[in-house]
Structure formats: C-alpha cells, structure tokens
Amino acid sequence: MDLTQLDFTKNSGLLPVIVQDSTTSQVLMLGYMNQEALKLTLSTRKVTFFSRSKNRIWVKGESSGNFLHLESIQADCDQDTLLVLAKPDGPTCHTGKTSCFHELEDVSKGTELSFLAELETLLYDRKANRPEGSYTTKMFGKGLDKIAQKVGEEAVETVIASKNEDEGEFVYEASDLLFHLTLLCVQKEIPLHRLIEELKRRHK
Is the dihedral of CA 23, 27, 29, 35 positive or negative? Predict the structure, then answer.
C-alpha cells in the first residue's frame, strides 16, 4: 500500500479503520490510525491504533492479550478510510463479545460457515488449557498419530454412510469427520484459513 496516497488531512490526522475477521468476514470493531499507528501495524503485523481517549498509540490486545493479527489492509476510493482483515486471538470487544457490534454477532453465526471459526478457537483453547474430562484434552494428550488415525477412521465411516439411504447417518458421520479434521489442523497449528486459501488458489 502506498502510504503517500492516503489522505490524513481529515479528522485531525486520523483515518477511520474498519476491522473484519479474516476467516468469517464479521465486522469486529472500528478504530482510528494516524501515520505512526499504520506504520507500526504494517511492521509488527499486530493491528495498532491511535486511541482518542488515551491520546496515545494503542496496540489492540496489549492488556487483554487478544491481539488482532494483520492479514491484509486496503484503503477506500477516497484514500481516507482503511479496511483491515485480521485474525483475532480472542474476543475483540472489552465486554467479552466477539465483536463490538453485538447485534451482528448472532447474525454472523448463521452465515458463511463461521461456526467452524468458533470451533477452531475453542479447540485452540482446549489444546492450551487441557480442561479435565474433555474429549479433546484426551485426544491432544494422545498426540498427532492418534488424532490422524481418528481422522482416517471417521473418513472410512463417512464413506460407508454415504452408501446407505439414511441421510441422517451420513450427516452424523461427515460431521465427525469435519470435527476431527479440524482437531488435526489445530494439533498441527495450521489455521483453517490456510485450507480456504488453498481452495481459492485452486479455484483460480
């Protein structure tokens, strides 16, 4: 992005910044950047703002640990507003909600398979914290080979179910397969958006 083309003359040197989840496209928050915050965002890959209330540079997540990791950034046609796509470490809103736009949160859960992103976040949390009695704790404890074996088992069961007339059985087994494939990706620390990017590449 050519920083020299951006128009910082409006809003006392600040550009409005809309942040979207790079996986689900959910709008997460609105903030402001000055030139320094923008340069820090690009260099550190952590979304950084100028806080109007604190009157200073502010890295989103510096207190909570819920950083926004930059995926892409672009300017609008007037070069005075930025759109940031980012991968959040956790809830973006200080209230604990996924988005600062609470009304949109329930709507987004029903669109674009965004539940997979919620599941992925939950599995990363389970991997890190290993709650007692959790099935995922048990699987993570057994390691990569066992998880990969389970994916293979679920794939075979899905194929068998596809040969039967019971649609519900197929949905059940395919759901198991998708869950364990996501579990395997989390174990290998390969985010689901990497798979989506590969599918997009093949589509092109």
Answer: positive
- Residue 181: inside a domain: yes
In a domain? residue 88:
yes
Q: Please, which residues have CB within 8 angstroms of residue 89's CB and are 6 or more apart in sequence?
A: 61, 65, 66, 67, 68, 69
Burial of 163 (0-12, 13-18, 19+ CB in 10 A): exposed
Q: Which of 175, 145, 146 is nearest to 158 (CA)?
A: 175
Per-block mean pLDDT, blocks of 10 residues, the chain (204 long): 84 94 85 96 97 94 93 94 93 88 56 73 88 94 97 97 93 96 95 88 86
Residue 46 near residue 59, CB atoms below 8 Å? yes
Total domains in the chain come to 2
Which range of residues forms the domain containing residue 11? 3-97
Q: Helices in the chain by DSSP H: which ranges?
A: 35-44, 102-108, 115-129, 135-142, 144-162, 167-187, 192-203
Assigned domain for 110 exists: no
Q: For residues 44 and 38, give the distance between their C-alpha atoms in angstroms, rounded to a whole number.
A: 10
Strands ordered across the beta sheet of 82-88: 27-33, 15-21, 82-88, 68-75
Residues 87 and 137 in one domain: no
